[in-house]
Amino acid sequence: MRKFLILLAAACALLFTSAGCASKTNYLNYVSEKRHGVFLYNDSETEIKIHCLEREQPYAADGVKGEMNSLIEIFVSLPKNPEALEIKVENHQGEMNYQTVHNRYYLSFSAESFASEGVDVTLTADGESKTYKALSVKHDGVISCDEAVKCVTEHDADYFKNLTENGVFKAEIYVRLLYDEDCYYYVGVCDRAGNIQAYLVNGENGKIIAVKNLHA
After folding, report:
1. What global pTM score does this model have?
2. How far is residue 151's CA from residue 135's CA, in Å, rounded to a whole number?
3. 83 and 73 in contact (C-beta within 8 Å)?
């Protein structure tokens, strides 16, 4: 009887171990960058772009997800660059940094995403202030970052399976909302060798538009 009970216990342990290994990997747990909001203002002279995102810190394309932080990134392009440019968005303000390569101004700070469909942005250039309304590019029918990732994992299931070992995904995922007259998502998968497989996803129906192999 004792031998039978030992064999039964061993069989049960094997059953539970197998069930654990067979459990489906949640690839959303491996997202190390999630740009889920974009706000834009654009006229003939001024362009303001705001990105709302979560990103690992420190940021590194190493295939391993780090601790996530909420960020706001702001980019401003002007017809004439002032000596000093300050910005105020809701309760956040600061002096913007000039990026010579891109000929634009940049500022980032830790904050949660803006909940409204539009946000007031006040620019103060060399002491002269002007307020603009930056509008969210998302509209009804645009899928979420999580849904974009799920579309990719279902589209290329074998690729994700090959990067998964004992239920652990040996890579990290970037998902970024993009806007070019309509909404799209970039979904990038970076493995631990620095190889990146990039997907362009339709922002409304989740269709995979293009796939490209890159290197970090």
Report:
1. 0.85
2. 27
3. no
End-to-end Cα distance, the chain = 60
Q: In the structure encoding, which two tokens stand for residue 38, read together?
A: 């974009």
Q: How far apart are CA 202 and CA 183, in angstroms?
A: 7
Tens-digit pLDDT profile for residues 151-207: 999 999 999 999 999 999 999 999 999 999 999 999 999 999 999 999 999 999 999
Written as six digits, the tokens of 80 are 């004439």
7, 10, 14, 17 alpha-carbon torsion, rounded to 10°: 160
CA distance 52 to 112: 8
Give me the residues paired with residue 155 across strands.
none
> How deeply is 140 buried, as exposed, middle or buried, from its count of CB atoms within 10 A (0-12, 13-18, 19+)?
exposed
Q: How many residues does the chain have?
A: 216
Q: 132 in helix, strand or coil?
A: strand
In this structure, how many other beta carbons lie within 10 angstroms of the beta carbon of residue 195? 16
Q: What are phi and psi of 45, to 5 degrees?
A: -120, -35
DSSP labels for 147-203? HHHHHHHHHTHHHHHHTEETTEESEEEEEEEEESSSEEEEEEEEETTSEEEEEEEET
